[in-house]
């Protein structure tokens, strides 16, 4: 039964990594929110808004269970 134990361990590690990545996304989104509130130009605001939206999509994908390797870009 060692194989099932290894699979469970692997799943737990994967979930831990996913949770870690989600927390990282939340932190990055918070930074973009701060940058949005102090944007000096419309171009800067649009850039930070687009980056925040992209990070939100990555986080949504992680929450749906997408594999982190497939979200990089």
Which structural class do you get from the secondary structure elements?
mainly alpha
The helix fraction, in percent, is over 70%
Topology as a string of helices (H) and strands (E): HH
What integer value in Å does the Rg equal? Answer: 17 Å
Shape: elongated
Strand content: under 5%
Q: Care to count the β-strands? A: 0
Give the termini separation: 38 Å
Largest sheet: none
**Regions with pLDDT < 50 over 5+ consecutive residues?**
none
Q: Give the total of domains.
A: 1
Number of helices: 2
Oligomer class: single chain
Overall residue-averaged pLDDT value: 87
What does this structure look like?
By secondary structure, the chain is an all-alpha fold. It has one domain (about 1-65). Helices cover about 80% and strands about 0% of the residues. It has 2 helices and no strands. Helix 1 (about 1-35) packs antiparallel against helix 2 (about 40-65). The protein is elongated, with a radius of gyration of 17 Å. About 5% of the residues are buried.
